[in-house]
């Protein structure tokens, strides 16, 4: 593995500042910093990030690779490996207690979403309706501001009013979610990442991402469950434009 | 692992050493980096309360290791400010970011623009400016004290509270003035974060001058600062 150089520090600072960066952009940034510093740019992106992670290990940070659930785009996320992220956010004063309650309720709504056609996401209207049930109450306009702040801080993505979890919240809250919603947190049968926003088997409840379905059922007219072999109900849905642009990034 | 044995052994003196010292320092690094998202200096008391706990007596040993690690791995300098019980730390970037803003996409880029403008006004007025003169100048840029701004929202709060809490601005009340008047100076973070040379280059371009040396007193001020910086380190 190559040694830790200034180009790595530049990259680390960039991902610390931005939180999530797409695979494509990571490659571009990496190249830019190697050029800027004159450091060796021959290693692959995986090696480059591996070198950074070796340094980060003892500080309980990690640059992790994941995928956006809504688009399938490969991204890199800087995550803190210390549990209890939600408490940490309060201690830091980034969010107040009531704001954190709202955050938690949004997660509940998304994870427990009973809309079988669209599991793993929630409409912003439903989300804003939770504001009334909080103590102390959160006004609609404050809730609206808070939701856009959470989207801005990249905890969620907003696709025309449909809110999905970002890789940042999935990776950082993995532990919290699997304790708070035991049994509701599943891994995708195709890519093994956690899956919230996706489609599931009517027979065995196995779940896969929409972008994995598109990939996995590409060459078949009669899709079957990858787990139990039962006919797949959702066929695979027409894919949004976002997914198609996400595919180029592979 | 013998870390448990070591912990109980250390508890007698509460002084950390070796592996334990290293481990605590790593925790502090994690903590200050998370804290930094607020851009507010972290107090010694916060580090003690949230991380060191029973090992407060090792603070100075730990913080030395922390400073080294932050610089080596993250390109960040740990700068001590204040004294005694009020001792606090802020993080200052050691890398040159003059060519990276397109990829860094600093959050709050527009806020930084406003901040840069205010620091420029202060510097060009001889390192301090009265609030009346400041707001007068900002008004010409469409920024008004008592009007919500389309980008910045409550501008008054942003300047007088956020920028000052983040230690970019040092605002002090002028004694014996009615109505009260305030004097604005550069805060400690500004001295570390924003090179005066950048400001002079910016103003030189703005006024279409050929060389930053046309601003004689500011130029000398800048040179003096740069010499100081070199000496300290
Ligand atoms: Zn998948
Ligand atoms: Zn099945």
TrEMBL record, chain A:
Enzyme class per UniProt: transferase
E.C. designation(s): 2.3.2.27
InterPro entries, per database record: Nse1, Nse1_RING_C4HC3-type, WH-like_DNA-bd_sf, Znf_RING/FYVE/PHD
Catalytic activity: S-ubiquitinyl-[E2 ubiquitin-conjugating enzyme]-L-cysteine + [acceptor protein]-L-lysine = [E2 ubiquitin-conjugating enzyme]-L-cysteine + N(6)-ubiquitinyl-[acceptor protein]-L-lysine
Family: Belongs to the NSE1 family.
Subunit structure: Component of the Smc5-Smc6 complex.
Annotated protein name in UniProt: Non-structural maintenance of chromosomes element 1 homolog
Record organism: Clavelina lepadiformis (Light-bulb sea squirt)
Automatic annotation (TrEMBL), chain B:
Membrane-spanning parts: 114-135
Stretch forming the signal peptide: none
Lineage top rank: taxon: Eukaryota
Record keywords: Membrane, Transmembrane, Transmembrane helix
Cited InterPro entries: MAGE, MAGE_WH1, MAGE_WH2, MHD_dom
MAGE domain boundaries: 21-222
Pfam families for this protein: MAGE
Classification via PANTHER family: MELANOMA-ASSOCIATED ANTIGEN MAGE ANTIGEN (PTHR11736), NSE3 HOMOLOG, SMC5-SMC6 COMPLEX COMPONENT (PTHR11736:SF14)
This protein's name: MAGE domain-containing protein
Natural source organism: Clavelina lepadiformis (Light-bulb sea squirt)
């Amino acid at each position: 593995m190559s040694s830790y150089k200034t180009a790595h520090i530049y990259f680390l600072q960039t991902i610390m500042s931005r939180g999530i960066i797409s695979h494509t952009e990571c490659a571009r940034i990496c190249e830019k910093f190697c050029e800027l510093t004159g450091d060796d740019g021959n290693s692959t992106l995986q090696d480059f990030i591996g070198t950074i992670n070796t340094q980060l290990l003892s500080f309980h940070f990690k640059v992790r690779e994941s995928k956006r659930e809504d688009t399938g785009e490969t991204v890199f996320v800087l995550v803190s490996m210390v549990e209890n992220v939600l408490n940490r956010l309060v201690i830091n004063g980034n969010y107040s207690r009531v704001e954190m309650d709202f955050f938690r309720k949004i997660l509940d709504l998304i994870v427990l979403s009973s809309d079988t056609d669209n599991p793993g996401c929630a409409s912003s209207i439903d989300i804003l309706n939770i504001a009334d049930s909080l103590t102390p109450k959160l006004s609609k306009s404050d809730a609206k501001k808070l939701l856009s702040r959470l989207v801005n801080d990249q905890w969620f993505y907003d696709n025309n009013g449909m809110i999905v979890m970002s890789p940042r919240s999935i990776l950082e809250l993995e532990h919290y979610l699997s304790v708070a919603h035991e049994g509701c947190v599943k891994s995708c049968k195709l890519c093994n990442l956690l899956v919230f926003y996706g489609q599931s088997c009517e027979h065995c409840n196995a779940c896969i991402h929409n972008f994995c379905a598109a990939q996995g059922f590409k060459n078949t007219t009669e899709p079957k469950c990858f787990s139990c072999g039962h006919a797949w109900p959702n066929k695979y849905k027409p894919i949004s434009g976002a997914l198609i642009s996400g595919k180029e990034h592979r | 692992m013998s870390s448990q044995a070591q912990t109980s052994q250390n508890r007698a003196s509460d002084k950390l050493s070796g592996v334990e010292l290293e481990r605590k320092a790593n925790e502090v690094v994690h903590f200050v980096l998370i804290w930094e998202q607020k851009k507010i200096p972290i107090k010694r008391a916060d580090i003690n309360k949230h991380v060191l706990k029973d090992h407060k007596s090792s603070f100075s040993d730990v913080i030395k290791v922390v400073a080294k690690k932050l610089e080596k791995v993250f390109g960040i300098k740990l700068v001590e400010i204040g004294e005694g019980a009020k001792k606090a730390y802020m993080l200052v970037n050691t890398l040159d970011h003059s060519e990276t803003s397109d990829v860094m996409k600093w959050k709050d880029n527009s806020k930084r623009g406003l901040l840069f403008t205010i620091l420029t006004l202060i510097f060009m007025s001889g390192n301090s400016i009265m609030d009346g003169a400041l707001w007068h100048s900002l008004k010409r840029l469409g920024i008004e004290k008592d009007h919500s701004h389309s980008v910045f929202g409550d501008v008054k709060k942003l300047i007088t509270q956020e920028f000052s809490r983040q230690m970019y601005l040092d605002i002090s009340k002028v004694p014996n003035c009615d109505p009260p008047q305030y004097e604005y100076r550069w805060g400690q973070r500004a001295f570390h974060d924003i090179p005066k040379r950048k400001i002079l280059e910016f103003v030189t371009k703005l006024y279409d001058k050929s060389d930053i040396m046309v601003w004689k007193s500011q130029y000398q001020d800048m040179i003096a600062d740069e010499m100081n910086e070199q000496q300290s380190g």
